Amino acid sequence: MLSLQHPYISVALDGQRTYGGGQQFSDNHMVNLCGCGIIAAADTLLYLQRWHNHGRIPMLDVCLQTNPLPFSAYHELIHQLRREYFPLIPYLGINGLMLAAGMQRFFRHYSLPFSCRWCVSHRELWGRIETMLAADLPVIMSAGPNFPFLWQKEKVSFYEKTPSGDYHPSSGARAHYFTVTGMDDRWLRISSWGRCYYMYRSEFEHYARRHSTTIVSNILYIERKT
Questions:
Q1: What is the extent of the structural domain holding 202?
Q2: pLDDT tens by residue, the chain, 226 residues
Q3: What's phi and psi for 46, nearest 5 deg?
Q4: How far apart are CA 119 and CA 97, in angstroms?
Q5: What is the tally of structural domains in the chain?
Q6: pTM for the model
Q7: What is the domain-level CATH number for residue 36?
């Protein structure tokens, strides 16, 4: 499996270590309800700061003083990012263009050598994810809302991997951001809700084309400036 080159972000919670953050742990109702985009953005920025450091960023550095990250510092970061870079539309969250705009503002503010855009051609999707992982860049991905029938409840399945190597359906998502940390020719390894899951690539393709749209079921493509 092609993977990120360093350990992924982890938060200390009730004596356990999470695999990335999770909006369900927030004490803010709106973040708890629809803050998955901010969580994915925060984890990506923290990963870049920890492993691709380009100078001090106080709001990130305070989280990175210990490993795993302190729960209180992590969620103070979430609130700060929401106020300054990633405003939430009440009950709807943040769309891909807003997410990309917030990341671009952050990159420019701290003179980070990255640029990003929302949405790549679906023909290029897996190649773009592979390119980012090979460059040690987390991939923010979305399973968009059902479209055009917004009231439907179709989801893309998330799986858990057993010690024996089998995959079992665990949960599912729609209108949800998560972060890709690894991939092979069949599976994506992802971080969502503070846990490690796997998603079948062909099932994501089916979901995006049949139950959503490839414009919103897509990725935030980040690349290093040359």
A1: 2-224
A2: 999 999 999 999 888 999 999 999 888 999 999 999 999 999 999 999 999 987 889 999 999 988 899 999 999 999 999 999 999 999 899 999 999 999 999 999 999 999 999 999 999 999 999 999 999 999 999 999 999 887 889 999 999 999 998 999 999 999 999 999 999 999 999 999 999 999 999 999 999 999 999 999 999 999 998 7
A3: -65, -40
A4: 9
A5: 1
A6: 0.96
A7: 3.90.70.10
